[in-house]
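Open question from group meeting: does this chain pack into something compact, or does most of it stay loose? Before anyone orders reagents, we agreed to write out a predicted structure and look at it together. Recording both the input and the output here so the notebook holds the full record.
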Amino acid sequence: MTPGGRAQAAIELLEEIVRAAREGGAAADTLIARYFKTRRYAGSKDRRAIRDLIYRAIRRTGELPVSGRAALVGLAREDEALAAAFDGAPLTPAPITADEPESVRGEVPRWLADRIDRSEHAALLERAPLDLRVNYMRSNRDSVATMFPDAQPTPLAPHGLRLPEGTSIEASTAWIEGLIEIQDEGSQLIALAAQATGTMTVLDLCAGAGGKTLALADDIGGEGRLIASDTNRARLDRLAPRARRAGYGEIETRLLNPGREMETLDDLRDGCDLVLVDAPCSGTGTWRRNPEARWRLTPDRLVRLMETQAHVLDLAAAMVKPGGALVYAVCSLLDEEGLGQLQAFLDRTPSFTVDTLPFAAGREHGAGKLLSPRHDGTDGFFIARLVRA
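Structure tokens returned:
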């Protein structure tokens, strides 16, 4: 493909990504994969170049652009070689005019600029590292590191390895044999905060596809009782094959009906030694991995997410036995979802008190700790551990 052909393909994909962000459609990675699946003529170099153009345009633009062309025009204003590709030849973009719409450079949507520490803004758009968690029931970090020549131990998580971006994982022996999971170091610390052991009844309340559930399974060593629940069937169904590959013992799964969760969880009331709440959130802490998520977040959506967080915290509290623990985490740098949400819970639930987190990473932030890309090199998380009297 010519540079102009690549630019046109990037515009077409950016149009889909902008539309999906506006209407709640599929993620950018999914849309890109679908696009190339029907365009076999695009070689691997073309695909990489087009993908790079798309993510350069997304990362430089904090606000949702008016169109995919506007997103790429904004980038072309700063890149002479890209601007030259807008030459109007067949299958290439029309020339850029002086007065046409273009995206505006920015790291964070304007309405959130003052709610996120400004020193973090640039780091939120850097490329994220590729972190692995070693399944220490089956191997150890040193042994797995020998399978990846460029692997380095993660500085904060005891079972983590960090690899160069683009390292092939799913074809590796370590992956096939279930020795590793792809998991950001910050997520590994959430599981560490749980301090799960083999004698416990453990509930991962918002389990999703089960990344943290599998880390908890590692900690309880195939003993105890581990339950993973979620309201999303498609995500929860991904847990079982992952658990089989890793060789973990029986993990119960429970699909919840939103707003009627107690119909499925009532037998666990006051019965769990540990409940993990990795709550649905804005994902501001993961913008390094999903930069177009900035285009999806609106004030109304944030309010709805906060309502959900309060609901799941109250639900989790009912599951914890006296003397048991509740770990609350959000992959967000917004206090509305982290510190503020937790303080509101403590105010209305005096039977819970703050406990010490078992790691030094992060910065003390009220009743919990804040991990961030700039300070810790992890995704952004607020994490707190509570105990019930």
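Observations to bring back to the group:
The CA atoms of residues 142 and 206 lie 32 Å apart.
The chain has 16 helices and 13 strands.
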